Amino acid sequence: xxxxxxxxxxxxxxxxxxxxxxxxxxxxxxxxxxxxxxxxxxxxxxxxxxxxxxxxxxxxxxxxxxxxxxxxxxxxxxxxxxxxxxxxxxxxxxxxxxxxxxxxxxxxxxxxxxxxxxxxxxxxxxxxxxxxxxxxxxxxxxxxxxxxxxxxxxxxxxxxxxxxxxxxxxxxxxxxxxxxxxxxxxxxxxxxxxxxxxxxxxxxxxxxxxxxxxxxxxxxxxxxxxxxxxxxxxxxxxxxxxxxxxxxxxxxxxxxxxxxxxxxxxx
Amino acid sequence: xxxxxxxxxxxxxxxxxxxxxxxxxxxxxxxxxxxxxxxxxxxxxxxxxxxxxxxxxxxxxxxxxxxxxxxxxxxxxxxxxxxxxxxxxxxxxxxxxxxxxxxxxxxxxxxxxxxxxxxxxxxxxxxxxxxxxxxxxxxxxxxxxxxxxxxxxxxxxxxxxxxxxxxxxxxxxxxxxxxxxxxxxxxxxxxxxxxxxxxxxxxxxxxxxxxxxxxxxxxxxxxxxxxxxxxxxxxxxxxxxxxxxxxxxxxxxxxxxxxxxxxxxxxxxxxxxxxxxxxxxxxxxxxxxxxxxxxxxxxxxxxxxxxxxxxxxxxxxxxxxxxxxxxxxxxx
Lengths: 267, 332
What we know:
The complex is a heterodimer of chains A (267) and B (332). Chain A is α/β, with parallel strands linked by helices and 267 residues long. Chain A has 10 helices and 10 strands.
C-alpha cells in the first residue's frame, strides 16, 4: 500500500509540480497516470524512489514514511522503466537485466561481471517473460529494436524483485502495435510478481485497455481517480483543455466493455 | 513590422567597414613582430639557403645544403647488412665449425709504425656474418617495440585509477579532483626525452629510463582522456542504476565502463603506436632501444649502418600503421 498524504512539490519559482495530492494505491494495482506535459506525473512517481522530495506532505510506503534517511533502502524496493530506456547499449541483454539488482550483487561479481548462476537463471526467466528469446541473451542491447529494448528495460525493472515498478512514458517512442505488446508484457510481469505499477502514458486508449485504475492530473492537481470505465470524454476534455491542439490524444472510442473485461479478467 | 521613432530608413543604416584603421594598425604591429622573430630564428637565411638548392641543381651556384645531404647519401649506400668480428677477440674459435651464414675474411691493412717510420702490411682475420648487422638492428628494433609495449602497459595501470579520480562525476571530492588534474597536466607537460634524460641519470643507460619516461608522459594523456570520456558518458543508464540504490563503484563498472571501453581501446592503440615511434628517439639520450644504436653509429660517421637502422624504423612504423589500421577497422 502506498499513501500520498497531501503531498506538494513547489519549486522556488512558484511552479506547483504537485499540489496537495492525496492518494492510496493498493498492492498489485496497475495505475496509469494521465495528463498533459507538466501535469506532475513524473513528479508524483519520482517521490517514490527519492528522485523528488515533497516540499509538503508525506509519502508512506507499506507503513513507512519515505525520508531522506531511508530513501536508499526504499530505492531497492522500487524500480523504474524510463522512456529513454537508459540501458547500457554496449552491454549484453542478460547483463543489462541483471544490472537491475545491482544494489544487491556482491561488488567482486560486479567488477568482473561474473554474476551468480541464480541471477543468470532469474534473468533468463524474466527475458522469456517479456517474449525475448535465447538468441537475444548475449547480443548488445544496441542491436535490438526499440520495442525489444523496452522489453529488456522491463525485465531489468523486475530483476530486483521490486514491490513497485514506475514506468515513465514507457511506450512514447514506440509504434502502436509494439506499444500494446510492451504494455502487455509489463502488465503480465507485474501480475506474475505481484508488483504495483505506476505508469504514465500519453495515449488515452492504451490507458483504457491497460489500467486497473486511472489517475489524471492537471497542473499538479488531481482531476480524476477511478476505473477506466468511469472515465468520460468530458473528464478528458477537462484534463487536456488548453493544451496545444495535438497534445490532446484521441478520445477513447473503442468499446469500454472490452477494457473492463480485460481489467476484470485479471482480478 | 514595428517602426519605432529611432529606426532609420534602410538607406541610412550603418554598415561595417571590412578594413578599419584598427585592423590596419594591428596588421602593421604583426608585421613588425614577425620581422623581429624571423631575424631571431634566421628565417631569412633559411629562405636563401633553401632557394640555393634550386640554384645548385640548375648548376648556377654550389649549395651547402645539398652538399651536406650528398655527404650522407654517398656514405649511406649500400645498406650495411654484414657484421664482422675480429677472430682474435673470439674465445675458443673453431675454424672448422663456423656458425651459419658466416665466413672467415682476411683483410690486409697497411699499418703505420711511428717508432720505425715504416708502413707494415698487417693481416687481420675477421669472422663475417652475412646478415649480422640486420639481425643486430632487428634485435634492437624488437627491444624498441617492447619498450613501447611496457610504456603503454604501465601507463594504462597508472591512468585507470587516476582517470577515475580526475572525472568530475566519480571523484571523491573537489580537492582530489584538482590535485589529480594538476598532476596529469604535469605528466603531459614533461616531454619524454627530457624525462628520459633525468631517468638515465637515476637508472643508468638501458631500456628502463625509456619505458618509465614513456609511461609518465602517456599516462597523463590517457588518464585525461579516460576522465573526459567518463564525464561525457551517457548519464541516463547511470541515473537509472543509481536510483535502484546501487553504489557508485558498481555503477561506474556497469553503466560507464562498457560505454567508455571502445574509445579507450582505440586511444590505447594510438598511444602504443606513438610510444614505439617515440621509443626509437629515446635511445639518443641513452634510454635504450634502436635509437642508441642509431646515435652511436651516427657519431662514428658509420652512415651505411645509420641507413640500415633508419630503413628498419621506417618499415616498422609503416607495418605498425597498417596493423593497427586493420585492428581498428575490426573493433570499431
